Amino acid sequence: MLNLEMLKKLKTNGLLFALTFLYFTLSFVEIFAEFYKIPTVILATKPLLMPLLIAIYCHTSKKINVIYLVSLVALWIGNIVFITKSAEAVTIGTALFTFYRILIIFLVVKMTRLPGVIPILLGSLPFLFLNLFLMNITFEELGNSFYLFAVHSIFTTIFGGIALGNYMFHSNKANMYLLVSTMLYTFMQFLFIIRVFLLSLNIFQPLGMLLFISSQYLLYRFFILEEAKIVRNENITQVEGS
In whole angstroms, what is the distance from residue 105 CA to residue 237 CA? Predict the structure, then answer.
């Protein structure tokens, strides 16, 4: 029995390792392609990243969250749309990223113990100043799409305040993952706006992709830890109630 359990565990861990290795390998191939501007490689690798992360999550999760899966699908579609880099693509991609961010905020609020309104407001300030700067430089360029970008910036600011406030008052590994993921995502957005509207350096696109894949992996790790905590609490409740 013990040998069978060990073999099953090794098989499970082996598949997880393979999926994670493939996720980061394709990610770095995509980053390489972004740096050297190889569109065929970008088109071949970029659409595979979110499905791989979904597979990693489904394989690891003790209690699969459908809302998180929907958010990753929205992010996946938005990421593909951004490949074209047209004005319409920016609008559609921003809408999908906003939808993704709303779902993630909903899940984090639902799954974690929030520190209170004041810590969240204080934690939002750094993200607010950064987003105000980005909104200022895109106001005239985006036209009607600016309002959609403004909505996305508001949710990004709120999420940043939740992540920073959570970590300040409950500094555990899960909240550390959440905070670092949020900071990487925000910096990715900053680089994207700077690249499109102010200064286009060759390093910005691959660096933005590195920030994106890292932020999503850390957010996945946050959800895995929080789900495991929920499952443990439910098991304890069942034991105490029996």
Answer: 27
Tens of pLDDT, residues 129-170: 998 888 888 777 777 778 888 888 899 999 999 999 999 888
DSSP code of residue 37: T
- Please return the burial class of 210, using the count of CB atoms within 10 Å of its CB with bins 0-12, 13-18 and 19+: middle
DSSP 194-239: HHHHT---TTHHHHHHHHHHHHHHHHHHHHHHHHHHHHHHHHHHHH
**pTM for the full predicted model:** 0.89
Contact status, residue 163 vs residue 222, Cβ threshold 8 Å: no
Mean pLDDT of the chain: 86
- Domains identified in the chain, total number: 1
Is 21 within the bounds of a domain? Answer: no
